[in-house]
Specification:
Elements (H helix, E strand, L loop, with lengths): L4 H12 L10 E6 L5 E5 L8 E11 L2 E8 L2 H9 L2
Length: 84
Amino acid sequence: MQYEIKVVMAQIEERLTNNEDLIGAEALPFAYLFGGDFLCLDFKEDAINPKVVIWDHNESEELSPVFYKAFNNFQEFLDAMSLG
């Protein structure tokens, strides 16, 4: 399934914030997952070595995103991708 960037950005803006300058301030979406969720880099606890989280669109409300940790850091994510 392929999405245009405008569609993805509209989904992000609607779910995360009404201030597009804040998109990426704490969580930066970098991959769209099937079903409407996103993989994000979560900078809240560590600005240098962010966790990789899943942004659950079903449980999130406007301006209140719900994240679940997928990997401890981006390197762990890359290592998992190279195993396949």
